[in-house]
Amino acid sequence: MSLMHPDDYDIHAVREEWVGKLISEARGRYPVEFDAIRRHCHMVGDLNPAFLDPQVAAEGPYGAVIVPPSMLPTYFASEGPWPPTQSAGTDPENAAVFSFGVPTPGDRGINMEVQWEFLAPVRVGDQLRLELRIADVFKKPIKLDPDAIWIITETTFFNQHSDEVAKWRNTMLIHRSPEQVARDAERSVQAGEGA
Amino acid sequence: MSDIDYMAERYWEDVSVGDQIAGFEKNLDWTQMVLQVSGSQDWNLVHHDLDYARDSGMPGIFYNTGWTTGMLGRLLTDWAGRSGWVEKLSFQMRGMNFSGTAVRAHGVVTAKRKDGEHALVDLDIFLENDQAGVTSPGKATVRLPIKDQ
Predict the structure, then answer these.
(1) By residue range, what is the domain housing residue A172?
(2) SS3 per-residue string spanning A40-91
(3) Mean pLDDT confidence for A182-190
(4) Would the pTM count as exceeding 0.80?
(5) How far is B69 from chain A (nearest CA, A)?
């Protein structure tokens, strides 16, 4: 990951290079499948047969099992976390997963805000792809890190017919650990003493 | 087993502004933590490694965005009925839901409107836990069927 000392970090240069940039045009490694939906439902105790029971869902308004709207379509529109690949950002040697490759002083990520728009049902067997862009990058301090970086992304999801099925706007905060903050502060003090 | 009738319809005409959605509750024990990682496939260490979470400045493991979205999504689809469609769902992560807490998802109807042929209901939705109060306030729009159409 491209970690930078805050004193070397030029937010204007980062914005110039990254805002508006198309980061990913990923395609799902697999079609939409039953078992991942079942695990998602198990996670939150969801027993809705529209998501779990092919026979009941076949008689429902969508004619087949659909993905719960709350199941991040990213799961089916990318290569997923395993096996790791460089293009998916899951290669351990290139682990800029949280920042989408945007250079940052920190490497700890927290999601702050999520906005979804669900445009069409996604059925088992559909093949999804996504286009992810950096919409904004800015610096805003938090209690843990005065040099925290905020990254807003916009992602559009398409099915195999190139129909838009969902849109996602996400705000991610990238911060340093307390140890990183202390280490960086020490370098700043040393640089000041050497000046 | 669930006491929700998933085959039932919820019609737009039968909804009123101010209607409460009682929702449901989850205890965030170790099994729930494992289900969170399995269901979301989010392997960020802050969501399952206590030492790493503490090294990141957090008091403990906190639950991830996929889980939060899933909880609020289930709240909506449990309520929306057989033909209801969640059009929009948004929320903020203002607080964290840590292991060891009990979290409740609930909501309230804030508006009813029509957009062309679509009959829509706006809702405020919430995740709150027994230690921090509301951690994830959000908003949603659900499209509901109209009677005799």
Answers:
(1) 6-29+97-194
(2) HHHHHCCCCHHHHCHHHHHCCCCCCCECCCCCCHHHHCCCCCCCCCCCCCCC
(3) 84
(4) yes
(5) 5
